[in-house]
Fold this protein.
Amino acid sequence: MSLTKQKYYNTLSLFISGLIVAYLFPTSTSAQSFQQQARPRIVVTADPELDDNNSLIRFLLYSSDLNIEGLIYASSQFHWKGDGKGTKWYVQGREYSRFGLNLCPCESWRWGKDERFIHDAVEAYAKVYPNLKVHNPAYLVPDVLKSKIRYGNIEFDGDYSKDTPGSDLIKSLILDDKPGPLFITAWGGHSTIARALKSIQDQYEYTTQWEAIQKKISRKVVLLPSGDQDDTYASYIKPNWPDIEYRQFRGGPNYGYGAQLRATPKNAAFLTSSWMKENVSDRGPFGALYRVWGDGKQMVKDDILDYFGFTGLTNEQLKQRGYVVWMPVQEKGSWLGEGDNHTFMNMLGNGLRAYESSTYGGWGGRKAPEQETPNIFSQPADTSAQALVATLSSDRLNRNANEPVYPNFFPAAQQDFAARLKWSVTPKYANANHEPIVHIEGPLSFMAAPGAKVRLSGAVSDPDGDLVTHKWWQFQAGSYPNKVVISNPTQKQTEVLIPNDAVAGQTIHLILEATDNGTPALTRYQRVIITVRNK
């Protein structure tokens, strides 16, 4: 066979493979090809930690990308309300017995009177919604968000003994027949989620429907945790629902407390007081709610573990006032923390398709191996500030030395956050920057044999008419372990050689990335996944 004919048959084979994939998997290919990512169904459960407050503000700015099904108050080992009846509670090893403290049994722990931080954030959203919808008409109507707020199992740390409005909502969502996965975050403890599952178990376990119910839930529910903050995942959910997917992410950007302490110079620029003031703190109702160092606020009055609002005091001076200084004081106005971002940043419609699989990776990281997902909020033996920051840092899950370096998505994520905050205070479309549009011709998932040359054609545009730079690169999230050769990676049309050592079934992930020159510069992507087939 001539080389010309061989090239023709290779091209024809790739085209037919693409058609087959598009036919078999229309949602994950054709929809993505037209920049219309499905909006993942997601529930937030959160305790009143100040970084949950900050994460919630970012989350609401992405309600245009998400199908938000619940905004639920939750308890954790760090925050619980009590039952208001004088009942005292104590769990061994919690923070009220650390740091030399001996403060409980208590009637409540670090829970403010009439706590309403979720309500406050949604009310701020309502104020800026008229501006947001100018920049993206997909933003959710504020009344829809308000209708999703519930109080879950907030009385005690790890208590899932009774139904609550929050657990009832989660139960109804788990049992409904809407298609696709249901993503449930745990920014605090899992007790509200555990109660929903326990209520389902109590209702169906001894019926003929039980096996079908178990299978349905295990296929449908995906948990997105910030660790096991009340031990109910380990004690109830995992033993009774072992097939529910549990995505604890690692390797992605560090959005947590003390991020500036380990940041590279490139990332540190997005954590300074000057950057935060210009792009976050001074941005209208959301900026006013957002917590930064030295802002004069406390989530709960006289909370001895919340000293972040103070300014002009050293670590030692704070200790002398009775505060537990578990992280060294930082510059006034600088980054404080959004420690729960990793649970939802892979759900966003930025083109990385990270919500489709825990292994794909995105702005939130990639799923950690099961053996590396203990209770990451347990107290280390070393109680120094440095040890505590190391424990809370998002890179606490050690990466294998042979694992490829994870892409640095932090600058892009921060600039995107800044742009959306600007939308919130900008009533005219032309007065703000908007993300570029990235399109790849044909299906975004297809098969190719070792030795084949795969041609890819992309298109990039910008709604503001900005100059856009683009590049192709390999995201080593696929199962093929080595690098591939990408011809002309800075051109829209490129060619990729499938290595001869690639084995059938392995996957190769390629990204077309585009960044505009607006202010702030915004980045979007499109991911192509090639599955190796037999020759």
Notes: Residues 1-35, 371-399 have pLDDT under 50 and may be disordered. The first strand starts at residue 41 and ends at 46.
